[in-house]
Amino acid sequence: MRLRLSITVIIILMVIAILRRFNPAEYQLFPPCLFHRLTGLSCPGCGMQRFVHALANGHPMEAISYNAFLPLVIIYVLLFALERLVLTGKAQTRLREVVEGRTACLSLAAAVPLWFVVRNLLGI
Prior knowledge:
Elements: H1 2-21, H2 34-39, H3 48-56, H4 60-66, H5 70-86, H6 89-99, H7 102-122
């Protein structure tokens, strides 16, 4: 388990380091969004590479301009990781009830398609 976690963290840090150095708007190191290429619409994750590049270079407002939904997703993923990988006992149980609870899951399930519609209607 620890080896798998270590490998995952190393891979994530390597991707962030690459995205920090190479602007996805200028370099084609990562694949473009196939959904956007086929439909012309932005999927809920479109702008993620540019978001990470801007955030890793200390430009949070620019990052949010690429995908305003990602900060919420990042917070959720960090809470999920905290609950799964760090906490134990009652603290883990309490956070699990929130992060993996019905309300959080339904809210996230509704927010993703809502973000898809809103960002395409408003062109963001």
